[in-house]
């Protein structure tokens, strides 16, 4: 019977995840990677809500049989803190996030949330802890209201508008021909990259996750929208554990911890000031980029 129920169960699971997944990049990823993902352990149990303390203990991981992509990663994050992951392309920043999300299982080491090994938490409840603001914002054909509500499917109209206000998206939506009832096309044509990001922040505010994953865009957003976006992000990140694959200097400067990832290892760690004083890798990257963007 297992053999027959398994695919159905997977399908239902996948559907749930499609509904609950917030970001498009992740959504596509889920579907593509589903088969490769490990299944829940027999003793895995759901967890309702977490504070968002995160710890990596000696985590090593390889995608294949070759050398480890991630080597012996150790760090600890208190709930509410912001952690900036910086480092050159291919260093392993996204892999750290993939492991945190349990898209893959470490070959060795342990990842804990609120002191609980994430392997002991059902995947479905684990995923419910996270919210995203990624570079590629997933939009679908529907109204602006529906697109924001994707962050929390049972949100009322008031909740949707409240979130949009906090995300600095309300004013531009109100200028549209039909306000919140204006239709969006799947590719979001007609709205700017920055406005897409604001919608994504509104969704994340609605979702109210314990752990926020932020993949900063480096795209050209006009200055006014950029300021709105930064302000909205600040609001969203407030008192929330945030992991940010960081490109912007202000995010990095304000982070509680910066982890400099280099060839799968944490080469340096600290705050912006302490790392600059160290005059190591971070300092070099900072100098190289002319004080505007670190990586
Ligand atoms: P970027 O800044 O370019 O996003 P990154 O620091 O996030 O880089 P990762 O995406 O974590 O780096 O990649 C680390 C290494 O693992 C790279 O060599 C990459 O090619 C490899 N890698 C990433 N994803 C996979 C995968 N699904 N299968 C096999 N190898 C992968």
From TrEMBL:
Entry annotated with the keyword Coiled coil: yes
| Coiled-coil intervals, chain numbering | 15-45
Carries keyword Ribonucleoprotein?
no
The UniProt entry lists the main location of this chain as membrane
- Domain (ABC transporter) spans 54-288
> Which subcellular locations apply to this protein?
Cell membrane
Query: GO MF annotations for this entry?
Result: ATP binding
Which UniProt keyword terms apply here?
Answer: ATP-binding, Coiled coil, Membrane, Nucleotide-binding, Transmembrane, Transmembrane helix
| Protein name in UniProt | ABC transporter ATP-binding protein
Species of origin? Pallidibacillus pasinlerensis
Q: What portion of the full-length protein is represented by this chain?
A: 313 to 607 of 607
């Amino acid at each position: 019977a297992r053999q027959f129920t398994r695919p159905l169960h997977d399908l239902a699971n996948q559907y749930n995840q499609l509904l609950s997944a917030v970001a498009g990049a992740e959504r596509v990823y889920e579907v593509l990677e589903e088969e490769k993902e490990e299944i829940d352990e027999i003793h895995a149990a759901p967890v309702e809500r977490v504070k968002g303390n995160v710890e990596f203990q000696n985590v090593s991981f390889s995608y294949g049989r070759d050398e480890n992509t991630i080597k012996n990663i150790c760090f600890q994050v208190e709930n509410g803190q912001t952690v900036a992951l910086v480092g050159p392309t291919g260093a392993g920043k996204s892999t750290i996030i993939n492991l945190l999300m349990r898209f893959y299982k470490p070959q060795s080491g342990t990842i804990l949330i609120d002191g609980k090994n994430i392997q002991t938490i059902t995947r479905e409840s684990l995923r419910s802890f996270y919210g995203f603001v990624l570079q590629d914002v997933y939009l679908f054909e529907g109204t602006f209201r529906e697109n924001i509500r994707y962050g929390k499917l049972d949100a009322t109209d008031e909740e949707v508008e409240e979130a949009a206000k906090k995300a600095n998206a309300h004013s531009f939506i109100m200028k549209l021909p039909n306000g919140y009832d204006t239709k969006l096309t799947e590719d979001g044509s007609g709205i700017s990259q920055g406005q897409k990001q604001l919608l994504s922040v509104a969704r994340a505010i609605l979702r109210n996750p314990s752990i926020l994953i932020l993949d900063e865009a480096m795209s050209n957003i006009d200055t006014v929208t950029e300021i709105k976006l930064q302000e909205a992000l600040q609001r969203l990140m407030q008192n929330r554990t945030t992991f940010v694959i960081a490109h912007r200097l202000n995010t990095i400067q304000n982070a509680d911890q910066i982890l400099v990832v280099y060839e799968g290892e944490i080469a340096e760690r600290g705050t912006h000031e302490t790392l600059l004083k160290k005059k190591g890798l971070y300092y070099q990257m900072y100098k190289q980029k002319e004080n505007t963007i670190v990586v």
